[in-house]
Design a protein that fits this description.
395 residues; 6-stranded mixed sheet; Phosphatidylethanolamine-binding Protein; globular; single chain; Jelly Rolls
Length: 395
């Protein structure tokens, strides 16, 4: 009986020893490489320790660059980032007092890999958690003010204590939102890095007004993969991923004339495969980023040629000339519902993007109020996944 009692007493000690051994086996210190591009500035933390930051000061007006930061750490990894968009002061504006006084925009792309194995272990996507620290201006109409520091309102919170540490609980933070390269407006520095195709641009739900954010993700164990490197991952394909295609053009190819104002001006057919589980509806946007306005023109912002939402979850395509499977929203030309064909004004080829969003619910949005910006805001916290293709057209 005494031997049994002694054995029972030793069980916790044995389990503790086994646990410590298991942790030791997975806590080997490894060398990692983080590659980050930011509009405009960031600082990187790993397991609560700052390991590097953007070498260009946030006080620099046009600071678009990428950084490679090497660090040593052991799994599990808590990767945390504070990211800032350049603003001149608390108004949230830039170029104050100049003809182009405006609200700026932001974005960040991140990939982290093991130096020795070259395995990609973390990359920016919607699984990152985000918290907004500073938001401005709350009243966007102040963008034309001659005294924006006085007239523009802002909101900020204190940086949470130990926000970058492994023990910090971020369950009340929201998920990051992903954006296209066109939405972010990719600039110099980004193309200096060989990015994995898995990397997405992320930020909070508002690229323009959310000026300072913090991001976090936890990587519990090394990713088991036969991929030799982040570079080779960039050319791999996953047949089970959410995909958007067209029977009339290939991704990156030419947009047929019949879908433009030089032809029949009808909408192109689109189809999609492998939507994520839990998709309750889809939304599709066709848009382009116009070039700078010509003399005498005003900047009308991004051109959106088609917005359609509340597409049923069992739908798999929209037909040529018949995009109204769901609810047709407005286009940028005359603010009318339905498709308006692109005209590719000016010299050179223009790029047109088609993006489908898989959403966790239907949208409570009327057709008459469904502009590009209102649709994006309505979708912000409901995006499960997105897929995109593009085509070019030149006159």
């Amino acid at each position: 009986m005494k031997r049994l009692t002694l054995l029972i007493a030793l069980v916790p000690l044995l389990l503790s020893s086994m646990s410590s051994s298991a942790i030791a086996a997975t806590s080997k210190t490894l060398s990692f490489k983080a590659e980050i591009w930011a509009d405009n500035w960031f600082a990187l933390y790993v397991n609560g320790k700052k390991v590097g930051e953007d070498s260009v000061s946030i006080k620099t007006e046009r600071s678009f660059n990428s950084e490679t930061i090497n660090f040593k750490a052991s799994y599990p990894l808590t990767i945390a980032v504070i990211a800032k968009d350049y603003v001149e002061n608390a108004s949230g504006l830039e170029y104050i007092g100049k003809s182009n006084q405006q609200i700026g925009d932001a974005g960040i792309a991140i990939q982290v890999s093991e130096v020795t194995s070259k395995r990609l272990v973390a990359y920016s996507n919607s699984s990152w958690k985000v918290l907004v620290i500073d938001k401005a201006p709350l009243n966007e109409e102040c963008v034309t003010s001659s005294d924006p520091l006085t007239e523009c309102r802002h909101k900020n919170i204190s940086l949470p204590k130990n926000w970058a540490s492994s023990s910090y609980q971020d369950k009340n933070w929201t998920n990051a939102r992903t954006f296209s390269a066109e939405e972010v407006g990719v600039k110099e520095g980004y193309f200096d890095i060989n990015w994995s195709s898995k990397v997405e641009f992320i930020w909070s739900s508002d690229l323009r007004l959310d000026n300072t954010i913090v991001l976090r993700i936890r990587i519990s164990t090394p990713i088991k993969s036969s991929t030799a490197s982040a570079a080779s991952a960039s050319i791999s394909t996953d047949s089970n991923s959410f995909r958007l295609t067209s029977s009339e053009f290939v991704d990156g190819g030419a947009l047929p004339k019949e879908f433009t104002c030089d032809g029949a001006g009808i909408s192109p057919p689109l189809s999609w495969q492998n939507p994520p589980a839990g998709s309750k509806s889809f939304a599709i946007i066709m848009d382009s980023e116009p070039g700078p306005p010509r003399p005498g023109e005003s900047n009308t912002g991004k051109h959106f040629y088609l917005t359609v939402f509340n597409i049923p979850s069992d739908a798999v395509k929209i037909l040529k000339g018949e995009p109204g499977v769901g609810t047709l929203g407005q286009n940028f030309l005359g603010k009318k519902a339905g498709y308006t064909p692109p005209c590719s004004q000016g010299p050179g080829a223009k790029k047109y993007s088609f993006t489908i969003y898989a959403l966790s619910s239907r949208l409570d949005l009327g057709a008459g109020e469904a502009t590009l910006s209102s649709l994006e805001k309505a979708m912000a916290d409901k995006i499960l996944a997105k897929a995109q293709i593009s085509a070019v057209y030149a006159r």
